[in-house]
Amino acid sequence: MTEGSTTNGAASSSLLGRNVAVSGASKGIGLGVARLLITHGAHVIGGARDVSGLEVPGAEFLTLDVTDEASVERFAARCVGAGVDALVNNAGVGVFKPVEAITPEDYRRVMDTNVLGTLLLTRALLPHFQARHAAGQSSAVVNITSDVSARTFAGGALYTASKYAQRAITQALAYEGHAYGLRVTEIRPGMVDTFFADSQPGEAHKAAWLKPEDVAGAVLYALSAPAHVRVDEVLLHPVVQDVAF
Ligand SMILES: NC(=O)c1ccc[n+]([C@@H]2O[C@H](COP(=O)([O-])OP(=O)(O)OC[C@H]3O[C@@H](n4cnc5c(N)ncnc54)[C@H](OP(=O)(O)O)[C@@H]3O)[C@@H](O)[C@H]2O)c1
Asked: Which residues form a coiled coil (predicted)?
């Protein structure tokens, strides 16, 4: 499939005129989201700490460290200038250790990126989304959490704590955003073949895992839903993953 076409070969413009901010857009799921949304007509403003060498027609990439308030404010200012109508909080890291091995540095890295980062970037764009509502325009926030945002496992204490927290933030924001027409979605993928946790895409044991474009499809579904529809949550797994809810 080439950019600008859909699986049935037809051009799609379901997001034409839309401007979407994506954090962690330099690789993995975030880059897959950026690519798919562009294919469907959106302009994407993507951020990551290292955006060197990234060239995707339809996207602009800016340096963004979601743990750094000043960096977030700079990124958000460009997003507001571009009139973004949606934010995809995707930037995230994972550290997997038994409880007795978790260090304060591990804690700060994971919680600052996954939880504080989600809070800072969302907070920076909410006044803009509220102003859009006052002008009769709707906006959306899509948070990429995980299938483990509501369950845990041995070695997963820190990562799943961050994902439970992201889920709580997502749901609280949905209640708060109701007042200004904000549509809030949690995307909960199972195992995805990316660079996550210092892995490499294409490793043999990941052959049957979800691909970034599978998760991107869920984001597209949420962002292109009819105006009266709010997609609260999407849980998706590769067929080979043990069924776990
Ligand atoms: N892979 C999986 O199996 C899986 C499953 C469920 C959920 N998820 C979630 O999906 C999201 C994306 O993960 P992925 O699998 O695509 O991982 P990835 O391939 O490692 O990509 C992570 C992205 O986040 C960016 N990032 C990391 N720290 C950042 C920071 N402080 N500020 C801004 N950007 C930052 C990275 O760029 P820089 O390093 O250049 O900043 C990169 O663009 C994460 O939230 C993860 O928890 C992943």
From this structure: none
